[in-house]
Specification:
This protein is of the alpha/beta class. It has a single domain, classed as TIM Barrel, CATH 3.20.20. Helices cover about 35% and strands about 20% of the residues. The strands form 3 sheets. It has an 8-stranded parallel barrel, surrounded by 5 helices. It has a 4-stranded antiparallel β-sheet with strand order 5-6-12-11, with no helix packed on it. Strand 11 and strand 12 form a beta hairpin. Helix 5 packs parallel to helix 7, helix 7 packs parallel to helix 8 and helix 8 crosses helix 9. The two termini are about 20 Å apart.
Length: about 325
């Protein structure tokens, strides 16, 4: 399916810039009379509970948690909010988002702007209809653990982000011994499911190392993995000169990664697939490869607020669920 950004959206992005347009859209979403339920027959049991749909919203769409109520009305099974750090962050210099329409992709170097985990917890009022997962990250193991202990009591699960391609501190934690220490420390306080979000394996050696890392993670009593994060690419259109690529180009890597993790780690690991899921067929392929759920974000730009409902309908027609 060929999907292009609506010409009106492209014009507004040109006038306002993609980041300001996204903020304006989120604010507008609060006032739109949308109540989109997913089709019946998509319910799925997960470690975070029973979901009305296997389609989730990936981290990064709502970085503050201010728009969870509005987003929950779009028909998602769950929403990942954040990523949150221990202290507020402004992120990298602007411009830090660009559309790549011909590739059905977006590149960003946001740098994890967020109000801090304490502010999110203070303002969170809960949502109806879907589960909420908090994405957390940090510069040190201590920050990861402190973020986790602060946030886990108010959400349904936590996603540990060690794979933001423009955040060197968290990316540097991909050693098995570091992951073991992190998992063992989190286990001391754990009362909710915990998933680890991994970077896209670029080579077969990377894939082998990813599976070793995940075996350590699961051996320490963790629950699963979100595969995969954005891919670091050159981005001269951004102030940083590089950024994380999301959307259609990640689809094949995501599918290979999900398939390998399922074969290597078996049924115990819960897999949330993300990367290049733009249609129901993409979601279907990810579920067939071994995912328990899928996450979308770039599809929201290309297909609009009805994307989760449309993808769910296409998924039903593909007879996966």
């Amino acid at each position: 399916m060929s999907i292009r950004i609506n010409p009106a959206i492209k014009l507004l992005a040109h006038i306002l810039g993609p980041e300001l347009l996204h903020k304006a859209w989120l604010r507008l979403l609060k006032y739109l009379p949308l109540e989109l339920e997913p089709p019946r027959g998509l319910e799925v049991e997960t470690k975070m509970g029973r979901l009305r749909s296997p389609i989730g919203l990936a981290a990064g769409y709502d970085k503050s948690g201010k728009y969870l109520g509005a987003l929950s009305k779009l028909g998602f099974g769950y929403i990942v909010v954040g990523s949150f750090t221990l202290k507020p962050r402004k992120g990298h210099p602007k411009p830090r988002i660009a559309y790549r329409d011909a590739e059905q992709a977006v590149v960003n170097s946001m740098g994890l702007p967020n109000p801090g985990v304490v502010e999110f917890v203070r303002n969170f009022n809960g949502v109806k209809g879907c589960k909420v997962v908090a994405s957390i990250t940090g510069d040190t193991l201590d920050e990861f653990v402190e973020c986790f202990t602060i946030v886990q009591n108010i959400v349904d699960a936590v996603e540990v982000n060690i794979s933001c391609p423009t955040h060197e501190a968290s990316m540097g934690m991909k050693r098995p011994e570091t992951i073991r220490e992190l998992a063992e420390r989190l286990r001391e306080f754990k009362s909710k499911p915990i998933y680890i979000k991994i970077p896209p394996p670029a080579t077969s050696e990377d894939m082998d190392e990813t599976c070793k890392l995940l075996k350590v993670w699961m051996d320490c009593g963790m629950d699963g993995v979100t595969a995969i994060n954005t891919l670091l690419v050159d981005a001269p259109e951004l102030a940083l000169g590089k950024g994380g690529l999301s959307g259609r180009p990640l689809r094949s890597t995501m599918l290979r990664t999900v398939d390998r993790i399922r074969k290597e780690l078996g049924d115990e690991v819960e897999i949330n697939a993300v990367g290049g899921i733009m249609t129901g067929k993409d979601a279907s392929d990810a579920l067939r490869a071994g995912a328990n759920t899928v996450q979308i974000m770039t599809a929201m730009l290309f297909r609009g607020p009805k994307a989760p409902r449309r993808i769910a309908e296409e998924l039903i027609s593909d007879k996966v669920c």
